[in-house]
Write a structure and sequence with these properties.
Structural class: mainly alpha
Largest sheet: none
Helix content: 55-70%
Radius of gyration: 15 Å
Number of helices: 3
Number of domains: 1
Order of helices and strands: HHH
Shape: flat
Distance between the termini: 32 Å
Number of strands: 0
C-alpha cells in the first residue's frame, strides 16, 4: 500500500482531542483527501459506466473547489 494510506487501526488510534496547529490540521485533511482519491483510483475499474460518469462529475466539482481554495 501507498505510504500515505492509513490503516483502519491507525485511524482508530488517532487522538483527535489533542491540540494541533491549524497548519497541521490542514495538512492532515489533505493527507486524508489523498487517501480517499487513491482508494477511488484503485477501485475505478470495478465501477460500471454510470457510476464512472457520476464519479467524474463529482471529482470535477471537487477539483474546481480545490482550485478556488488555492487562488
Amino acid at each position: 500500500m501507498d505510504g500515505n494510506i492509513f490503516s483502519q487501526e491507525e485511524i482508530n488510534n488517532l487522538n483527535i482531542d489533542e491540540n494541533i496547529s491549524l497548519e497541521q490540521d490542514i495538512r492532515n485533511i489533505i493527507i486524508l483527501a489523498k487517501n480517499e482519491l487513491s482508494i477511488i483510483e484503485n477501485k475505478i475499474d470495478g465501477y460500471n459506466q454510470k457510476n464512472k460518469e457520476k464519479i467524474k462529475k463529482r471529482l470535477n466539482q471537487l477539483l474546481t473547489k480545490i482550485i478556488s481554495i488555492r487562488q
